[in-house]
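Entry 14. Structure prediction run on the chain below.
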Amino acid sequence: MPNDSVQQVLVKADAARALLTKQEVDLQGEINAIDDIEWDRPLTAEERSRRQQRRSAQTAVRAAKIELSFITLRALDQSPEVQRLINAFRSINQDLKQELDQLKNIAAYAETAAKVIDAMTEIAIDLAKVLAKV
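Output returned:
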């Protein structure tokens, strides 16, 4: 599935999942058929063994479904669409970082300007006091 489109990955995964689900349902049907025998008589050793084999196979099918999920996720991660999204998010993050750095610089300039304005205000007040005494 490497480098398949998202749609291709999902179609393949759905097909594999459908096969596994059918196999799981078939196994459950066989288990149920064996269990139904117990209504009429005790199971033979061979029937118990066959039921246990079917249950083991069913467990393996369920494990395969879980593994399929992980494989599907890996394939989706490698898809061109997801790679483009990752690249776009990286670019957006870089742009946001640059914007943040610019805002930090503007904030620093504004802080300096505020200090200069405060100093000029104090000078103007002191100058007004001096002129008032004259």
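The chain has two domains: 1-78, 94-134.
Filed with the rest of this week's runs.
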